[in-house]
Amino acid sequence: MKRLDPKDVIVVTHRDYVERTKEELPELPPENIIAEPLKKNTAPACFVGTKLAEDDEPVLVLPADHRISDVEKFWETMEKALDAVEKYGGLFTFGIVPTRPETGYGYIEVGKELEDGVHEVAQFREKPDLETAKRFLESGRFLWNSGMFLWKAKEFIEEVKVCEPAIYEHLKDVDPRDFEAMKKAYEKVPSISVDYAVMERSKKVRVVKADFEWSDVGNWSSVREIEGYTEESENVVLVDSERVFVKPHDKPIAIVGLSDVIVIDTPNGILICKEEHAQKVREVVRKLFRTS
What we know:
- The model has no long low-confidence stretch (mean pLDDT 93).
- The chain contains ten helices and 15 strands.
- The chain has helices at residues 18-24, 42-51, 71-88, 130-139, 153-163, 165-171, 179-186, 194-199, 220-227, 281-289; strands spanning 11-14, 33-36, 58-61, 67-68, 91-96, 107-115, 118-125, 142-152, 205-210, 214-215, 236-239, 242-247, 253-256, 259-266, 269-274.
- It is an alpha/beta fold.
- Helix 5 packs across helix 6.
- The chain has two domains: 6-215, Spore Coat Polysaccharide Biosynthesis Protein SpsA, Chain A, CATH 3.90.550.10; 220-289, no CATH class.
- Helix content is 32%, strand content 29%.
- A hairpin with a 2-residue loop joins strand 14 (259-266) and strand 15.
- A five-stranded mixed β-barrel has the order 5-8-6-7-9. Strands 12-14-15 form a three-stranded mixed beta sheet, covered by helices on one side. A two-stranded parallel ribbon has the order 1-2.
- This is Mannose-1-phosphate guanylyltransferase.
- Pfam families: ManC_GMP_beta-helix, NTP_transferase.
- Keywords: Nucleotidyltransferase, Transferase.
- One of its GO terms (molecular function) is mannose-1-phosphate guanylyltransferase (GTP) activity.
- Residues 8-228 form the Nucleotidyl transferase domain.
C-alpha cells in the first residue's frame, strides 16, 4: 500500500470540529473534511466516508484517537491486509495481540486460518469482566478489537444495504459534501456503531493480526503504558511502593505501601484507583456529573 497522499485522506467529523480539523490538518483539501450534522455513532460516518471512494477502491478506516508508535510495522500490516482483501474479499478488521486482561476493549475470537496472520472471525465478544478477560488472554484465541477496518468500497456499501438497510436507504443518494442534504438524512438514520451495524452481522468478516504496539488511550492505564510507571521526584514520594502511576497537580503526593495504583490530582478532584479497575472511572464521572 503506498503511503497516502493528503488528497486521499477523508476526515468525517462533527460540524463543531470542522474548523479545528482544518487548523490541525492544513495539508488536507478543505472539501475532504466532511461535516456530520448530528452525532450518530460510527456506522453512518463509515458509510458517507466510503461513498466518496471508487467502487473497487480499498478504504482504510482509522479512528483519530489511537496511538501507534511503530509506523513501519503499521504499514507492513496494512500491506498484508491489502493483499488479503485482494485475495479473499470481505470486510477486514485488525486485531491487536492482548498484553493484559483488559476489560475496556471488545475482543475478537479468531476462526479458520486463511494464511499466516489472517483469519476468519469466529465471533466478536463484548467488553468482558476481569475474570473473562483473563480467560481470553490465557486461551491465545482472542485479539483486542482495534476498531480499524479495511474494505473495498462497493463491498462495504452492499453489506450495509444487507445488514443495516436504514442507513443505506437514507444515505445512498446523499452527497456527503452537501451539508443540508446530510442534515435531512441524518435525522432519519439510526445511531449505531459500525461494529453492531455491520461487522457483527456480516458473513464476510476477516481479521488481520496487527503486529504493532497500539493504544486507544481510553483510560489512565493506557496513559501509564505510554509514559511508564512513575519514579520518585520532587512532587512524588514513594515508600515501599511499586508499579504506581502518579500525576500531581499543585501539591506533593506520597504513596506508602501500595502497588499497581493510579493517582491523578486535578483541579476538580483526586482519583485513586487500582490499575486493574481503571475502566471504572467512567462510573465516577457518571455519578459526579449525573451523565447517562
